């Protein structure tokens, strides 16, 4: 069950965590077993709760994608949008929706936080069974490519949830197997690999944080889970049930046992306790941030950055702080074939620049931002992903 996630830099000037709703949790009632209470906003810096987005007592407005009609669900069944056993949540920042799958069900639910409406995706690909702990979906996250990914306890199903023109589709990418170097730290064993949560990086790799505190890196191409270490600095009996990347680039972990939140550096796997509420029963965490979301700068002394790297608002912020820089720099955008699809000149005044660059006529996809100075020297190369 859910009881049995890098060095990263994101520059967000003037960020007000309390004002942003981009970090969410599934919280439970104060019981020994999993018992869904609500989806709520979490401030990962202070460890304090915010708005309750949807609760076990909310009036559920469910629309079936397959039947193209509103449906009434049986709340006594495990196959409903307010099922007691919830342990997998992702946040899709391109449309500000929460995506989740009940543990004992194969149904996928898309919650629209503003309207409280829910889209039901009746999934025939997933094979969750209430009597098979191996099949329960307990790990879920948004991928850098804009899709949602979910993994069951045993790694026998790696699901990809896509959204094309408003229609959701579920695909099974295959079975995740242990890397040959894992030894006794098996990804597929209950004691060492089950439960927990997952995060994604900007190269669309995934890191699975097992309930045991073990961390595995998963590659989609190889479908292998490589053990990279165990979280240090948490109590021996700490059950890692939720994980999500915060705006600072650290991984926040949470427990279903009512324990404090911790912030983990993926490079060292060292954890530090976060102040705030310490009796929250958290079954899963989700955010809009990704691991390794940092500048690939040719000249690190230039103190220059472009953010965010996953663009859903048609612009990026450009920041520069270097007293030796002045004059004009050129902001170039290249598509994956290497074609220059956009160029804009920016003026640096007294070594400082803080500006927005708006994209025009760029279709969804991956691009490379290249910033060069007047002499043609490259100051920054950085990959971004433009979404709808």
UniProtKB/TrEMBL annotation:
<protein>
    <submittedName>
        <fullName>T9SS C-terminal target domain-containing protein</fullName>
    </submittedName>
</protein>
<feature type="signal peptide">
    <location>
        <begin position="1"/>
        <end position="19"/>
    </location>
</feature>
<keyword id="KW-0732">Signal</keyword>
